[in-house]
Amino acid sequence: MRDAAHDVPVTSNAPEVDFRALYDAHPDYVARRRAGSYEQAQVDLEVRLFKLPNLLRALPTPERVESVLEIGCATGELIAAMPVRAGGRRVGIDISEANIAAARTRFPGVEFRCGDFRESDGERFDVVVLSDVLEHVPDDAAFLRDAAELADTVLLNLPLEDNWLNRRRRYGPDDVSGHLRRYSLADGRALVERAGLDLLAEARVWVHETDAEPARRRLRRDHAGAEFGGGPASRLLRRAVHRAAVAWPAFGRRLYASNLFVAASARERPSPGPRQAR
Q1: CA-based nearest residue to 53, from 157, 144, 166, 200
Q2: Would you kindly state where each structural domain of the chain is located, as residue ranges?
């Protein structure tokens, strides 16, 4: 049986996954921990040109933020880039000891913790950030609800992979990126509702329509010698398809995944109406 809303297998006797071990040893994170690696440079680029600008645009008053907690900070690039007022705090927490060790080495000015954020002693922050996290956890709504209890505002970055290139992807712990489920825009909005949050702002963004995309292509060319992977024929085909996706937005938005950037707050707090997704 499958959970139709999230496209993830539902089995009563499925073995429990050791997510700490999974992300300690996952090839993507092992590569990100290597200083000077292509993967590390790619994450830096995506934080600077895509994730951080869109998260801050969703935040109602970014200039007033004094304390930020990122849950699932991995190797620390995003929380290290989050702006806070003078004397403010940036804290990153992750279950992977290897990722936290790498983050502490690279970003000594940020406080990093290894463990489960739900074991904190009632500590609160102005903002809590969840970027590319909820697709990795078994109970996404409960996780988001618990995170919202730690801050006045939740900033969420959720991949929306209800697109043509991901139609045949098999989601679960063995997924190449460790994604347990696929979200559509409706799923993302429903998740915020199921978590008991009020939506303050939202924006749906396709990375191939932003300045991050040509920068990613240049980075790959510099590191791998070509903007697209595969042999000569495959690269030509991929380049042609990508150009078509850029030239015809309706096609590109069906072909490629997008990201939903959300600012939300716990329901008992008053909030303005949401801005509509682009």
Answers
A1: 157
A2: 2-206+257-266
Per-residue pLDDT tens over the stretch 22-70: 788 888 899 999 999 999 999 999 999 999 999 999 998 989 999 999 9
Rg, the chain, Cα only: 19
Residue 16 is given by DSSP the state: P
The tokens for 172 are 């679960």
**Cα 168 to Cα 166: distance, rounded to the nearest angstrom:** 6
Cα–Cα distance for residue pair 208/254, rounded to 1 Å: 12
Q: In the structure encoding, which two tokens stand for residue 91, read together?
A: 């804290």
pTM score of the predicted model: 0.89
| CATH fold for the domain made of 2-206+257-266 | Rossmann fold (3.40.50)
CA dist 225 and 207 (Å) reads 22
For Cα atoms 180, 160, 40, give the angle at the middle one, nearest 5 degrees.
75
Residues written for the chain: 278
Alpha-carbon distance 46 to 44, whole Å?
6
To 10 degrees, what angle do helices 38-46 and 212-224 make?
170
